[in-house]
Each structure stands twice: as C-alpha cells, then as structure tokens.
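Problem: given the chain below (149 residues), write out its structure.
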Amino acid sequence: MFANLTNGLDFQAKALLIRADRQRVIASNIANVDTPGYAARDLNFKDAMNSALGAGSNLTLARTPSPSSNGDGTSHPAHIPLQSTLGSLGGNDSPTLEYTTQSQPSMDGNSVDMDRERANFVDNSVRYEATLRFINGSSRTILSAIQGQ
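Solution.
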C-alpha cells in the first residue's frame, strides 16, 4: 500500500536529481564559454531517466572521451570538471554525457553556443521547478489524507 503511494514521488525524485545534474552540466558549459578548445557537453534526460528507472546497479555519470581528453571528463587541464549527483539512483546503465553539435565554428575551437546554453538553462530550470511543485503537491495530498482532512 505504502509503495503505491510513493511510486510517483520516487519517479519525481529521480527526475529532480537528473535535472539538477543537467543544470550543472549546462552551467559548466556557460562557465567555459571563453576557454579555447572547450567542447560543450549535455546530458540526455530521456536516457538518464530510463537508466534510473531500471533496477540494478548504481547510476553513475559516464563521460565519453574527447580526442584530447584527460580521462576525468575534461578535455584540457584548465577546464572545469563536472560533479555528478546521480550515484544515489538505481539503474541498469549509466547515462552518457554527450558532446553537443557545434552550430557555429569558432576560431579558438570552443563549441559553446551561449544562446542555446541560455535556452537550455531556462528550460531545465522551469522543468526543475515544476518537478519540485509536483513533489510538494503530492506530499501535501498524502499528508492531508493521513490527517483525514
């Protein structure tokens, strides 16, 4: 009975963690907008959510190596490394942090498109806030049902 009540909240909690991690990835792209040779990254939310909903091992953020990768998720020692919060989720596969396609070539090899990053940042922020509101509403509903109101 209790599991039926919390299934929706578990789903939303996993979505919230993935949204928070995606926000960090986008913020890292924005922070490295002036770093020569930086390759913009993004997290595929659908793949990460599918992985989180599967049963089994821990979900960790895997990074695809770039041609000049150091192995820790950065393509240059001056680049800011990404931190993941997805280790607490359960899933079969790790979502892959993918490189974004470069929309405008730049002289310094940086592939960050600030317009796209701003749009992604705002979109992800709105979705994060909506997920928070859903969780708050669900917990209030459960609490009022328990209290008999």
